[in-house]
Amino acid sequence: RAAQAGQTHVQLSSRRARPGPASAQTACPAPGPSSSWRRPIRSSCLTEFIFFADYSKSSGNYIVDVDGNTFAGHVHADLLSALSVALAIITLHCRRKCPSNRPALGVCPPSDWVDRPERQPATMMCGSCANENAIKMLFMRYMAKQRAGRPVSQQELDSTMLNERRAPRASPSCPSSAASTAAPWACLSCTRSKAIHKLDVPAFQWPAVDFPAYKYPLEQHQEHNAKQEKLSLVQVEETVNRQRATEPVAGLIVEPILAEGGDIHARPEYFKALRSLCSKLDVPLLVDEVQTGGGLCGTYWAHEQWGLDSPPDAVTFSKRTLLGGIYFSDNLVPDQQYRVYNTWLGEPSKVMLLEAVIRTIKEEKLMDSVLEAGTALTKGLEGLSQRYPQLINSPRGLGIMCAVDFADTNSRNEAVQRLRN
Ligand SMILES: Cc1ncc(COP(=O)(O)O)c(C=O)c1O
């Protein structure tokens, strides 16, 4: 109905029956090669999944798998109805205006794109795509500064086509887990997450810097933690200066919480000092909020909680924001067109869904719930780590992005397994 009425805003209204409570009918991962979770999907080079989800049965706080297990998860009941409305709108939109089922934002965006603000984030398909293009923007900004207003020469264009020009390096990336997974090449050169993703793929020689290694509880180890922050910042400065002796430095990339790197947190004081250091060194700061953005940390962006004097030069996002993208400051806007470009540049239906999500976050005051739940969760983890210090330690959290460290990998794996089952 919304689509037929030409409505472009998705209303989140329909309520579905919710599954729950959590219950496991089979072990998960289920044993044996015949179990659904282990079925190979060769086309995607993946053979091991945690489970196959049945999204038609999943809703609210519960995610249901094809074996009938119900796990705690997050599938907002309204998002599924929003999805069908958005798809209906997009389909109608496309039938009227575009000969494909997905407007190519890079070449023929839909007419309502004209009414959007002139300065808006660059939309992308995924987090890797966002980071890859943001890193490109760092290089472009560096070279634009070098040219100091001089137009790009024909010789530069010709040698670029022959891959002859030496590109400036976006370095250092800081530290163990910026951009992750089987990402494109620049992201792979940043990640320190899993060797298997990087194996056999050529890499740029971009250095990484150690994150502060805190002791918890933070308030009992202030001196140690402040020293760790200082060490990391000194390392950043030394690395930039050392790199500059041989290579240009185009930027520095950091995750607010090293997510795949083990949920390693750092204090706002650290990030504030890092921002100032980047400004002092004239190194643009790219904050990868692919894991932390979208509300899970209690604010739309984790970096909002750092109390920065000046914002990051670029912020990348994906995952909870449903589509990838880059916010960037004016100094990163390339001088020429077609420099941050691909066919789809994201997906308009995802933008509509994201708008719906943001409205729901506001209407249902979900950010308050995140803060409340995060406080309860962190307190709970602190309590558990006091009761079972031999098992878990270092409870920490920002919003509901909370973590503890286990004494060893086996006890971590066993806990995860038992929590699922
Ligand atoms: C911090 C960070 N950046 C970027 C990415 C890549 O995002 P995507 O998997 O959407 O390409 C990930 C993926 O997990 C990530 O954790």
Automatic annotation (TrEMBL):
Coiled coil: none annotated. GO terms for molecular function: pyridoxal phosphate binding; transaminase activity. InterPro entries: Aminotrans_3, PyrdxlP-dep_Trfase, PyrdxlP-dep_Trfase_major, PyrdxlP-dep_Trfase_small. One of its GO terms (cellular component) is mitochondrion. Its cofactor is pyridoxal 5'-phosphate. Gene3D superfamilies: Aspartate Aminotransferase, domain 1, Type I PLP-dependent aspartate aminotransferase-like (Major domain). Residues 1-37 are annotated as: Disordered. This is 4-aminobutyrate--2-oxoglutarate transaminase.
